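Async update (no meeting this week)

Hi team, since we skipped the sync, here's where things stand on the single-chain job. The sequence we agreed to prioritize is pasted below, unchanged from the tracker. I ran it this morning and attached the output directly underneath so nobody has to dig for it. Comments welcome in thread, and please keep replies under the output.
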Amino acid sequence: MSKETDSFREKLEIQYKFPALYNFKFIVPKESTDEVAKIFPKSEHKLKPSRNGKYVSVTIPVMTASSDQIIEAYEKANKIEGIIAL
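Output:
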């Protein structure tokens, strides 16, 4: 694990008492919204297109069991080309 991952895990452990509702937020190219949906197939997706329509803001509230589950989802999301995790 990297130092950044360990630091993020520590922050999650301090801020959340698991299980906890966690809001994943991403900005993705419009054509990549389906790829994000595949990571969270059972969750509601709130989509907000950018002003020019090239990008979409995606918010996904997920009941998470642990900080590791959150980190694992971000690792999957980071494989999507052009994604920005917020």
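Quick observations from my side:
The radius of gyration is 13 Å.
Residues 31 and 55 are 8 Å apart (CA to CA).
Reply here if anything looks off.
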